[in-house]
Write a structure and sequence with these properties.
Layout (H helix, E strand, L loop, with lengths): L6 E4 L8 E7 L3 H8 E3 L6 E8 L6 E10 L10 E7 L2 H13 L3 E2 L4 H8 L5 H11 L4 H9 L6 H23 L11 H30 L1 E7 L5 H9 L17 E7 L2 E7 L9 H16 L2 E6 L7 H9 L4 E6 L13 E2 L8 H9 L15 H22 L4 H18 L6 H11 L5
Parallel strand pairs: 1-7, 8-10, 8-11, 11-12, 12-13
Antiparallel strand pairs: 1-2, 2-6, 3-4, 4-5, 5-6, 9-10
């Protein structure tokens, strides 16, 4: 990939439509367009009318409007030209191929936005937010993506970094300046309290972020249970389409069936799994293994039962795998019984009665404040914060085991390096030294 190339792509999608947009970006954009355009060459941020011609045959390809974004004050940070053509696939691709024939190359997926990032026009986080906005499937997802365009999590992470540097400074000074008597001595009890408080703060941020990120990305839900309890019927009903095969024969579903639907602006990604049971059928066994894998991957588990069917060891496996997940214990076919148990969510796929289940599915997410400043929507940043938490827990474990400062400093430094990466900063020693010498008297 050469970022000195001039690139081109159909930005509006390669489909028949009223208007299509062909975008060119790079140093040779203006030179290329002059070869194939008859009309006024516009100035920066102007629109002009003209014709695209084949410069070898001199035939007119289309009448177009061109948006001129010349210089660096634009999305990609380099000369960019957008051709607004009539939106037929044939004519749009003729223009595309003509531009390629005159010196451009076809852009790679995301390359325009990548150039915007490399040219300092947007942050990496905004680039990811733009992609999420494009792929948003609900209003809430779109709102969150837009909010990330100017989201600044820097104060939050810097606050955590400041507290961490206080801890590191105490430990580092006890390593490097242990011969001085006027320094703050390393008090293991005090240090534990400081580390625990920081762990608590980071845990809160991670929990909030995980829940909000579910809404941002879509909540993965596995429908599981014994064969023939109504899993496929439930999936079809939630999706409002016949996607899964429904029969009264146990073991019909032998592969993963997926679909998406929305409740109150929340996107749920459903997975209908094979019924979990002991079987000698090799194909069904493969489906059951996929079911177990789906449980591990999902955020929410709908564990489906039916009346008068006792819990078996496979149900116990499902419950065990569902620890630390949103677990919904659901009784289907309540149209067959007179009394409903209090300890289960009761539904009837036959009567299309899913009110209680839908309420339970949105319950955990309905009171989340999506504008909370302590939420990280960026998966990369959140992953680094989780690494920070792991390192701090290892620090705490070291302190519990009475390890010395020269040992616990290793995990503390790793924590700090992860925070610096979130801030897109180098983990240089100058920042650490500045903190040490600004807060402690070492003037001897």
């Amino acid at each position: 990939m050469n970022f000195q190339d001039t690139i081109v792509a159909i930005s509006s999608g390669n489909i028949n439509q009223a208007i299509s947009i062909v975008r060119i970006s790079g140093t040779n954009s203006l030179e290329i367009i002059k070869k194939i355009f008859i009309g006024k060459i516009g100035k920066n941020k102007t629109i002009t009318y003209g014709k695209i011609i084949d410069n070898t045959t001199k035939k007119i390809i289309d009448e177009v409007l061109i948006n001129w974004f010349l210089g660096t004050d634009n999305y990609t940070g380099e000369d960019t030209i957008e051709i607004n053509a009539h939106g037929g696939i044939i004519v749009t691709n003729k223009i595309l191929n003509l531009i390629i024939a005159n010196g451009a190359r076809l852009a790679l997926p995301g390359e325009f936005t990548r150039r915007a990032f490399l040219n300092g026009k947007i942050t990496l986080e905004k680039a990811e937010a733009i992609n999420n906005l494009i792929h948003a499937k609900t209003n809430k997802q779109a709102e969150i993506a837009i909010s990330q365009f100017d989201n600044n999590i820097k104060p939050l992470i810097e606050m955590i970094e400041s507290e961490l540097l206080e801890i590191i400074s105490i430990v580092e000074i006890n390593i490097d300046y242990s011969e001085y008597y006027d320094i703050e001595q390393m008090d293991t009890k005090k240090l534990k309290i400081l580390v625990k408080n920081l762990i608590k703060k980071i845990n809160t941020i991670i929990q909030k972020s995980d829940n909000a990120l579910d809404i941002y990305k879509g909540i993965e839900v596995a429908i599981v249970g014994q064969p023939n309890v109504g899993k496929s019927s439930l999936l079809n009903l939630l999706l409002n389409k016949e996607k899964a095969i429904v029969t009264n024969i146990p073991g019909t579903t032998r592969d993963i069936v997926e679909g998406e639907f929305e409740i109150n602006g929340l996107l749920f990604k459903l997975i209908d799994t094979a019924g979990i049971r002991n079987t000698k059928n090799k194909i069904e066994s493969l489906g059951i293994q996929k079911s177990l894998d789906a449980i591990k991957k999902a955020k929410m588990i709908i564990h489906l039962h039916e009346p008068n069917k006792k819990e078996n060891k496979e149900d116990k496996i499902i419950k065990e795998l569902s620890k630390d997940k949103i677990y919904l214990d659901v009784l289907n076919k309540i149209d067959l019984i007179n009394e409903y148990p209090d300890n289960k969510i009761c539904i009837s796929t036959k009567n299309k009665n899913l009110f209680e289940l839908k309420g339970a599915m949105v319950k955990k997410y309905k009171n989340i404040d999506l504008d909370d400043n302590e939420i990280l929507y960026n998966s990369r940043q959140l992953g680094l914060l989780k690494k920070t938490l792991i390192n701090l827990n290892e620090t705490l474990q070291g302190l519990e085991n009475n390890f010395g400062p020269e040992v616990v400093i290793i995990d503390l430094t790793k924590s700090w390096e992860n925070l610096r990466e979130i801030l897109n900063k180098q983990s240089d020693n100058e920042a650490l030294l500045d903190n040490i010498f600004s807060k402690f008297c070492l003037g001897k």
